[in-house]
Amino acid sequence: MASRRSNKRKQRNRGRFGFLYKLLSLVIILVVIAAGCVVFFRVGEITVSGVSRYTAQDIIDASGVEKGDNLFLVGGSRTAQKIYSSLPYVDEVNIRHALPDGIVITVTERTPAAVIQGGEGWWIVDAKGKILEQVATARQAGVAEVSGLTALLPAVGTTLAVEDAESFRLEALLSLLKALEQRGLLAKISAIDLTSAAEVSMVYDGRLTVKMKLLDEDSFPEQIRNFAAVLDQGIIQENERGILDMTLNTPHFIPQYGEN
Fold first, then answer.
1. Which of 3, 170, 209, 215 is the most buried (most CB within 10 A)?
2. Domain 45-109 grouped into CATH 3.10.20.310
3. What pLDDT, in 10s, does the model give residues 7-42?
4. Bridge partners, residue 149, by sequence
5. Is the pTM of this model over 0.85?
6. SS3 content of the chain, % helix, strand, coil (to 5)
């Protein structure tokens, strides 16, 4: 009887120590693997694509990633945030590992859409309202000059803000810019006037003043779609100047003759 109890006790001990041995072995294996990653997997090459305004080196410097860094300690979101914080024209960043020793950074840059006055200068913004750059004059920006809005406490890298009384106009502006960008028309807009409470006007191709209803921000995709249709239909010749009134049920073109 005593012998059987002793054997059972020994079996339990062997089982207990066997489990501990397996657990310890697993820990040692994981430590060895981790150490191997730290020692052997080092960044040897950094590749950047998708940039035009910035250089590849600008992106690498902003990321903080250097050759020799541990490959698996280069965090995607953390590294991307460094780039966003340093380079305002960067819209999206994708970072991936390219084994055995590569890091690939793919960047999508923001497109300047308009320039708005505020504080002591003019501020370039994209269609999402991100402030990209400060310039001394509106002409220097080379994008649509906005009137009827004033930037509130503008700073590069922040989102455009205005006084509460102008918040509806800001929403309208961003919706209009997005609709123009989606239709590929944004580059030909040189001015946007939001001073009227009933309509928005913009200058297209330096020769057409286009008037649209200021209903709500959701109306601009349809209005810009209709404007694009007018251009496609050839109703207005490429050398014609004048006013395109789209506040009516049917778009109405008023030609302008002479120099002015």
1. 170
2. yes
3. 555 555 555 556 666 666 666 555 544 544 455 578
4. none
5. no
6. 40, 30, 30
